[in-house]
Amino acid sequence: MKKLQTMAYHKLLHRQLSKYYSDGKTSEEDFQRLIQAVNNSYNSFDRDKELSDHSFLISHQEYAYINAQLKEEVELRKLSIQKLKSALGNIKSENRESLNNSSDDLLEIVDLLNDEINRRKEVEQQLLLAKDEAEKANLAKSDFLSIISHEIRTPLNAVIGMGHLLYKNNPRTDQVENLKVLRASADNLLVLINDILDFNKIEAGQLDLEEAPFSVKKLASDIVTSNTNSANEKETRMSLILDDKIPEYFIGDSLRLGQVLNNLVSNAVKFTQQGFIAVKVELLELNAQNTLLKFSVHDTGVGIAKENLKNIFLPFMQATTSITRKYGGTGLGLAITRKILALFNSDIEVESELGNGSKFHFTVELKQLDDDQVTVEYDEIDFDLKQKKILLVEDTLFNVLYATQLLEGWNAQVSVADNGEIAIDMLKKNEYHLILMDLRMPVMDGYTATTEIRKFNKDIPVIALTASATSNVRQKVVEAGMQDYITKPLNPEEFYMKIKKQLA
Questions:
Q1: Three-state secondary-structure class, residue 426
Q2: Each residue's pLDDT tens digit, 175-233
Q3: How far apart are CA 473 and CA 320, in angstroms?
Q4: pLDDT mean over 401-408
Q5: Is residue 434 exposed (0-12), middle (13-18) or buried (19+ Cβ within 10 Å)?
Q6: Separation of CA 70 from chain center
Q7: DSSP output for 13-41
Q8: 76 C-beta neighbours (distance < 10 Å), count
Q9: What residues pair up with 329 in beta bridges, in sequence order?
Q10: CA 269 – CA 302 distance, rounded (Å)
């Protein structure tokens, strides 16, 4: 038997064969297969052990990494809980004592959050109730202003109206100055009332811009003309500079644009003594549809200190209390001006220095109209109603006297009804060209009367006469079937033009 070859076997098997092997105990072939199987087992064991050791090493590293991550997350969780508790303490101070800062129990926080949510819901409900109460109070305020407006404007209509008629009827020389004072005082009172009511309408979101054809050049010229007498009394010169390239006609709200410009011009007159006022309208951009105009009013008056510029646009605020004492006013003019310009998507800017005058300016984009698109006329007013028959429905005696004298002075034939019910009977028995309808009357008001009239006469034009300026008068009069309305105190020129429009 050949000697067993042991050199290629596993080292442990090699040592064992060297120590215990003796030749001849079994056939070399059978024994060789046994030894080979044992050798393979040793080698497999070594490979498995090597893989096991390697796997254990990797698992240990992963375990260490995961353990470190878990520790970090636990610390982060504790820190988050502490911050959450601190935030809860800031939200609700009474929670601070009830929170256990040494505990990381999230259930405690959840309970506190539930308590806070319930408390917030109660607060929200209280706020909703307070909001309802505020809305009711605001509605009551609007109703009060509507009523007080009617009650003030009604006698003011007589004051302004009678003053106008007296001034027209060739007063004595010694009476002219008194009538001028009377008219100026009544006009100032009307401005104050209008400012308060306009501000209330703007705050309530009830002021909307209208669109109608108008001339910017004529608007600016009329405003300068109307303020020239006041400027002359203060020995102040006034000029109007109009860009020659400005188109003749635009469409927009000339009333509100005129209100803005008139506020600025009248302020310039008020605060300028023996100085100069320049009103300027410039063309900045012109295209096929829209035109950008710049309006500016520059005066050499008292000026405004830089630290007071931010106050002049606040409601009921003026630059200083001495301004109120010396010049009067409510402090609403510039606040209203800014809010109206916001409706035009614009704003007002001011440059001023104390003692060196002020310059107010703003830009407005308006839609341009061709001359052939404009139907409005700007000719001289002839003030002749050519014997047109007009039914005046009015219950207040001095309003009847004023309106009747105006209408008869324009050659109209006037009949009077004390309330809506009488007006309906008179209209059924007689023919009239136009009805002037007061809105608030005993027995039957103007809205109800017009609704009844439309049941048997759909053609006769009806113009509402109202002293209420806070409610949405236009919408109500249209719904009742009226064509237009005019606000008391009556402006004779506006009154005539609205009548002429409906009779035409």
A1: helix
A2: 888 888 888 778 778 877 777 777 777 776 777 788 888 899 999 998 998 888 889 98
A3: 37
A4: 91
A5: buried
A6: 55
A7: HHHHHHHH--TTSS-HHHHHHHHHHHHHH
A8: 10
A9: none
A10: 11
Q: Is 100 helix (H, G, I), strand (E, B) or coil?
A: coil
Flag whether pLDDT at 366 surpasses 50.
Answer: yes
Find, among 357, 361, 353, the residue nearest to 260 by Cα: 361
What percent of the chain has a predicted confidence (pLDDT) above 70? 83
CB 362 within 8 A of CB 284: no
Predicted TM-score of the model (pTM): 0.61
Burial 127-149 (b: 16+ CB within 10 A, else e): eeeeeeeeeeeeeeebeebbeeb
Instruction: For residue 465, give both structure tokens.
Output: 């006469």
Contact predicate 485/437, CB 8 Å: no
The helices-and-strands tally (H runs, E runs) of the chain is 14, 12
**297 contacts 264 by C-beta, under 8 angstroms:** yes
Residue 88 backbone phi and psi in degrees, to 5? -60, -40
Q: Which residue has the higher pLDDT, 293 or 146?
A: 293
pLDDT tens digits, 468-500: 755 567 788 889 999 999 888 888 888 999 999
Q: Do the beta carbons of residue 395 and residue 389 sit within 8 Å?
A: no
Token pair of 70 as six digits: 């878990």
User: Which one of 8-17, 59-68, 354-363 scores highest in mean pLDDT?
Assistant: 354-363
Alpha helices in 410-445 (DSSP H): 420-429
Q: In this predicted structure, what is the pLDDT of residue 180?
A: 80
Residue 33's alpha-carbon distances to 5, 6, 29, 47, 176, in angstroms, are 12, 13, 6, 21, 148
Does residue 216 sit in helix, strand or coil? helix
Question: Can you tell me the distance from the alpha carbon of 401 to that of 409, in angstroms, rounded to the nearest whole number?
Answer: 12
Write down the architecture of domain 389-503 according to CATH: 3-Layer(aba) Sandwich (3.40)
Q: What DSSP string runs through 299-327? A: E-SS---GGGTTTTTSTT--S-HHHHHHH
First CA to last CA across the chain, in angstroms?
147
- 177 or 444, greater pLDDT: 444
Q: Among 423, 422, 439, which Cα is nearest to 390's?
A: 423
Q: Phi and psi dihedrals of 486, rounded to 5?
A: -135, 140
Phi, psi of 112 (to 5 degrees): -65, -40
Confidence at residue 456, expressed as pLDDT on a 0 to 100 scale:
93
- Answer yes or no: CATH 3.30.428.10 is held by domain 216-373: no
Task: Give the largest CA-CA distance in the chain.
Answer: 167
Mark 188-217 as b/e (b = at least 16 C-beta within 10 Å).
eebbebbbbbbbbbbeeeebeeeeeebbbb
| Residue count of the chain | 504
Residues 169, 317: Cα–Cα separation, whole Å? 41
* Residues with Cβ within 8 Å of residue 283, at least 6 apart in sequence: 243, 245, 246, 291, 292, 293
